[in-house]
Amino acid sequence: MSPRELAAYRVGLRQAADMALIAAMELELRPDAGKLRQQAAIEALRGLAEGLKAEATATTTPTTENAE
Question: Which domain of life is it from (predicted)?
Fold first, then answer.
């Protein structure tokens, strides 16, 4: 992966993380935010955002594996 492609990949990961946090916030503002299902969705979205941000700041480059 070229440096430019890697930069674009990381920007996309950060944007996806931001969207996950926005979706979590939207769920928190709903009247039924206290229900178990909504709380689970909120925590899942936060976890997704955390993982995406960690991947975006990782020092290793993503690779593709060749199936043999």
Answer: Bacteria
The Cβ of residue 16 has, within 10 Å, a number of other Cβ atoms equal to 16
Enter the tokens of residue 19: 């969207």
The arithmetic mean of pLDDT across residues 35-53, rounded, is 97
**CB crowding 31-65: b at 16 or more within 10 Å, else e:** eeeeeeeeeeebeebbebbeebbebbeeeeeeeee
62, 9 Cβ separation under 8 angstroms: yes
Tokens of 38: 């909504």
pTM passes above 0.85: no
